[in-house]
Automatic annotation (TrEMBL):
Domain of life: Bacteria
InterPro entries, per the entry: Calcineurin-like_PHP (IPR004843), STPP_CPPED1 (IPR051918)
Pfam families, per database record: Metallophos
PANTHER family for this protein: METALLOPHOSPHOESTERASE, CALCINEURIN SUPERFAMILY (PTHR43143), SERINE_THREONINE-PROTEIN PHOSPHATASE CPPED1 (PTHR43143:SF1)
Name of this chain's protein: Metallophosphoesterase
Organism of provenance: Falsiroseomonas oleicola
Every Calcineurin-like phosphoesterase domain range: 3-201
Length: 291
């Protein structure tokens, strides 16, 4: 069995611990799953673009996971590509450098079972940063080198919500222009699957010959307006055969947090604006990392 565990949208913070218990439960489930690797598909933080401490906290939190761990960034880690949902947190060089310092890299290529998995930094797509061009060349090289293996692309944001023809810029998915540049490369390169987080919702369907798998979040439920099913959880995917087989990890006791309730129905715009409510001291990452 060539199993990979996917964890997405952790939204951890040393000052705002709303989702720490869900993360602990997911860690236990991931460690019990005995997978070849754990892939973390972005939004590890709440305020990562502006907080060294939060990025460091998230990196140390991942040390609870056994075995190989591969993390790629989301908008709450390195900022959004423009125009973005928060103009104060647009991806830039220093934010990318902060991520690299904490996690080592913002992309990966991994052969598992019959497949090649290619993880991208979604926040570069449409950023106009020099790293965007460099990543596209890197991706093309690794798709071309798959030598007949089906390729699964892994990134924080979905390529689109309903169809590739969507033409309005949105913070919910990859924007139209970078999507138009990316899709022909995927189709030419034999990409069979796209695995994404960000929307905090589950969905698994084939569009134009590519299977699009949306991952549930570890933190809070997404909006039902995006077509998927708002969901808390974590998935394992078996890549041993030509068809990837998806199963849900058991997460007993995980709480399906409602973001509007947490933010007191508009009293706070962002979670980072809320009064501090750190994780319980006895559960801190430092203590756990020392185990
Ligand atoms: Fe998220
Ligand atoms: Fe996100």
């Amino acid at each position: 069995m060539s199993k990979i565990v996917f964890l997405s949208d952790l939204h951890l913070s040393p000052t705002h611990g709303f989702f720490w218990d869900n993360f602990r439960i997911a860690c236990d489930a991931a460690n019990d799953a005995m997978a070849e690797a754990v892939i973390v598909t972005g939004d590890l933080c709440i305020n990562g673009p502006d907080s060294d401490e939060e990025m460091d906290f998230a990196a140390r939190a991942l040390s609870r996971l056994r075995g190989q761990v591969l993390a790629i960034p989301g908008n709450h880690d390195v900022g959004d590509e423009p125009p973005g949902q928060d103009p104060a947190q647009i991806v830039d060089g220093p934010r990318l450098a902060r991520w690299d310092e904490a996690f080592g890299a913002d992309r990966f290529a991994l052969d598992v079972g019959a497949w090649r998995l290619i993880g991208l930094n979604a926040q570069l797509l449409g950023s106009s940063l020099p790293q965007e061009v460099e990543q596209m060349a890197w991706m093309t090289q690794h798709i071309d080198g798959a030598e007949g293996r089906p390729v699964a692309l892994v990134l924080h944001k979905p390529l689109f919500i309903e169809t590739a023809a969507e033409d309005q810029p949105t913070a919910s998915s990859i924007n139209p222009a970078p999507r138009a540049a990316l899709l022909p490369l995927l189709e030419a390169g034999g990409v069979k699957m796209v695995i994404s987080g960000h929307l905090h919702a589950s969905r698994d369907r084939v569009v134009d010959g590519i299977r699009h798998l949306w991952l549930p979040a570890l933190a809070f439920l997404g909006s039902a307006s995006h077509g998927g099913t708002p969901a808390i959880g974590a998935l394992a995917v078996d890549f041993s055969g030509p068809e990837a087989v998806v199963t849900e990890l058991p997460m007993p006791g995980a709480v399906a947090h409602d973001l509007a309730v947490l933010k007191e129905h508009g009293r706070y715009k962002f979670l980072r604006d809320m009064p501090p409510c750190p994780p319980p001291a006895e559960q801190t990452v430092l203590d756990d990392a020392a185990e």
